[in-house]
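Handout, page 2. Input:
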Amino acid sequence: MKALTLSTFGGPEVLEHREVPDPVLKEGEILVEMKAIGLNFADLMRRNGHYPMRGSAPYINGFEGAGIVKDSNHHPEFKPGDRVAFADVPFANAELVAVPFEHAVPLPDAISFETAASVMLQGLTAHFLTNDSHVVKAGETVLVHAAAGGVGQLLIQVCKLAGAKVIGLVSSESKREIVRSLGANAVFLYSDAWTEQVLAGCPAGVDVVYDSVGTTMESSLAVVKVRGQVVLFGLAGGKLELGNPLFIIAQSKTITGGDLWDYLISREERLRRSAQLFDWIISGKVKVFPPAIFKLAEGKQAHEFMEGRKSTGKILMRP
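Output:
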């Protein structure tokens, strides 16, 4: 089979589309022929050597995608041709992936491969962030960093479904319009004095900040209310800048972390969370923007596209 691989860490130039051996199924695994593969910021971090890679060189990156069952490996709940998706299976940047049974999520007919690969990781992230890391309630005010990104777009819509007011932060006017179209109550640019603008409209501070940047943590803490919460779920800025920790103590503010892998701990969890996500999409309560799609052989260009922050939604690759 063909796969997108890397044998050394670095920029997009280290990626190679090459022939590699087909996966050898273990007990409890099914073989999935990939139709759409999700590209995520964590894939860039693994390619750069900041996150660990599984296996040995040539490494195969990626954890998210959708496709059809090619070999059910005698598993009674699947048959060849079944449509499935996953958010947390390694070696996804390939034509064929060995998927543990408990990680395979059956796809409703109304959910396309492209939609599934666009929302499995980011949608399930938005789900646990709003239901577990902080339970968003009606009447709360929520601030979302990188609001035009994949998780940001979904966070806005899920928070609105819960009855919250949402403030989005973006880097450009074009992204501001996207976030407004999703129902955000206010949208501010990072280049403006956004902390002042947030506090002008919400003098006591917001109830919760969803921060995926890290370098913005000090500002996030400045705009969250006394006894409020900042949920850190990414480090797009490359590092965490906390500021004076006494400020956290003096105002009883909480910082909590969030990682999807700590919530997808069973097949029941995956099915329950994905079922609600799919229901929101099918019913039209959550909108998914069309993804930018590259061939798997164009993996270098896909990584460059993401690093250039040119996308306002999901980036997919097709074998």
